[in-house]
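We treat protein structure as text, and this decision shapes the records that our systems exchange. The tokens are whole numbers drawn from a learned vocabulary of local backbone shapes. Below, we set out a record of this kind in full and without editing:
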Amino acid sequence: MEDVKGYGQYCPIALGAEVFAERWTPIILRNLMVGCHRFGEILEGAPGLPRSVLTQRLRRLERDGVVERRDGGGYHLTDAGAELTEVCLALGVWGARWREVLPENLDPYLMLWALSRLIRPGTLPKDRVVVRFDVEAARGPGRYWLVVSVRGNEVCVRAPGFEEDGVVVTDAEWLVRWHGGSVSLGSAQAAGGIAVTGPPWLVRTLAGWGELSPFAGIRPASGRR
């Protein structure tokens, strides 16, 4: 069992940091916040997180009353956990405003995975939408399929066997900018950063997906370096 030491201070910031400021904990909370309940789902959205560490963190969060296990339903946020996700969102707003995405952090798979967690089945124009993404990037296979349907969403690195509704050609930087809401699909197309091949309804759908991030519209601070 991991030996976790506190700060030994009464300050509410210190008490809260004992739970929140541990490595990987904000990422785990983020994944729970977007609907990951199974151990494997949480792990999938946290590349580099060892299984043993995830087990330790979840046990700690259970002891702290942030997460609870439900019969047949995996891990869920408690009322305290749901309130703690507001700290996650505030941290994300700060990061979007004051931090820059470095080239080594441009992971197309993780970006598409995050997008898949935000798309709700009730908003789809048909029962299943399949979009192929051809992404020029320094990491990853370079081709992905985003499959969203009433049965669930997934990102595939091999052809899923369904008919493609369209193809998006871009690079990792433009993909992240579009997903993060810092540039609209129309602006990205006009600038030559993103090319979409598909029917008009798909272009409209993709334009909406680019506005789903909770940090869409956060403008970088003018003094950011």
About this structure: The longest helix spans residues 79-98. The beta strands are 67-70, 74-77, 128-136, 143-149, 152-156, 166-171, 194-197. The longest strand covers residues 128-136. The chain has a mean pLDDT of 91.
